[in-house]
Amino acid sequence: DSSDDIEDVSLFDADDDASRRSKKSKIRHPVASFFHLFFRVSAIVVYLLCELLTSSFIACMVTIILLLSCDFWAVKNVTGRLMVGLRWWNQVDDDGKSHWVFEARKVSAQGSKASSEAESRIFWLGLITCPMIWVIFAFSALFSFKVKWLAVVVMGVVLQGANLYGYIRCKVGSRKNLTSMATNYLGKQFLRQVRFPGFWKPS
């Protein structure tokens, strides 16, 4: 939304001693890493197996929605902050104007980050892959005329897609900045082709 104001604020100061001890390949927050994947993967597994486990649609729907809600809260408020040092939220002021607020963990004096590369890969892999699976489920439910499951699948797309959207904006900035980055890149490629025709070849 073009009317949204974007504000960057600092997250809690990183613990310098913990940053020195951490290694890039080490998972420093195993519990957070586990629950980052547990709720969202469990929701997908329950969706796939619920008709085999029980004939109660209500029980399956409630279980899936509870898992999706727990996942949304955990990823938004806990695992993002611990695993990649990012957090986001949207707030509305007294005038009814929407504000996106992003937090990023400060880098220590040595320039090292508290989060590890392994945790970062786990975080972004789970964050991106699971919403894509729910989108596939949505098309499958739509084309197979499983109308009763469509609301559950849409809930999965909305909740997990909201976290994905929030963290992407938190990582790369506003949509305007993202668009300008893409425009600048394409502009440079075009100028290179004009100045040196036939010089640039795809690798």
From TrEMBL:
Q: Which domain of life is it from?
A: Eukaryota
Known Pfam families for this protein?
Answer: DUF846 (PF05832)
Membrane topology per the record? Answer: Multi-pass membrane protein
Spans through the membrane: 30-49, 55-75, 122-143, 149-168
UniProt GO BP: protein secretion; vesicle-mediated transport
InterPro entries, sorted: TVP23-like (IPR008564)
User: Which is a Gene Ontology cellular component entry for this protein?
Assistant: Golgi membrane
Keywords carried by this UniProt record: Membrane, Transmembrane, Transmembrane helix
Its subcellular locations are: Membrane
- Provide the family line: Belongs to the TVP23 family.
Alphabetical list of PANTHER family matching this protein: GOLGI APPARATUS MEMBRANE PROTEIN TVP23 (PTHR13019), GOLGI APPARATUS MEMBRANE PROTEIN TVP23 HOMOLOG B (PTHR13019:SF9)
Q: What is this protein called?
A: Golgi apparatus membrane protein TVP23 homolog
According to its UniProt entry, this protein's organism is Herpetotheres cachinnans
